[in-house]
Amino acid sequence: MSPDSRKIRLIMDLRRAGVSDLRVLQAMERLPREAFTPDGFRDQAYEDTALPIACRQTMTAPIAVGLMTQALEIGERMRVLEIGTGSGYHTAVLARLCRRVYTVERHRDLLAEAEQRFARLTLSNITTRAGDGTLGWREQAPFERICVTAAAKDVPPILAEQLAVGGLMVVPVDHGPREQRLLRVRRTEQGLETDDLGEMRFVPLVPATVRRSDMAS
Q1: Architecture per CATH, 3-215
Q2: Contact 169, 147 (CB under 8 A)
Q3: pTM of the model
Q4: Beta-carbon neighbour count of residue 142 at 10 Å?
């Protein structure tokens, strides 16, 4: 099966899984996911599976990317914070939908590779940072949307504080020893409102220690 045929099949799978937002589907259809996939796994670029990348991290399965992105309800003028750049694929999907993405990655090698991919695809509305994603990006806050691509122990209070009033965050949260739930958090004048969007699996969200020079944007 050709890459184009695999991509068409994936888009159909996304629709069946509940991804109905046309802007999200178009963004994922237009992006070459194989450009973000490690050598040796490119024949699986359009399979609905998480793929291993460097630094013991994973490339999120496409349907999880679609469902998380749809849940954010991103507008084209919004500023989005992403925690966990990884391969850069989800970052690129977000960048196709909003005004600017600010993305934080604790592994410098992963970030450098993702930056090269963004440059090759001429994605100019992405600002990157090597650092501790659990701290967010306070200097650029507030954000209309926050996307966390690693599982937290609970809704991260520092990230919630960096949400604009009316803003949305999607974050996987541990729910027992072998279960994670994807939560959508809305910040209101009165506090936080949370919706449970179902079970998903992600690597853990952990703090990172980096050199001061790594924290430059």
Answers
A1: 3-Layer(aba) Sandwich (3.40)
A2: yes
A3: 0.91
A4: 16
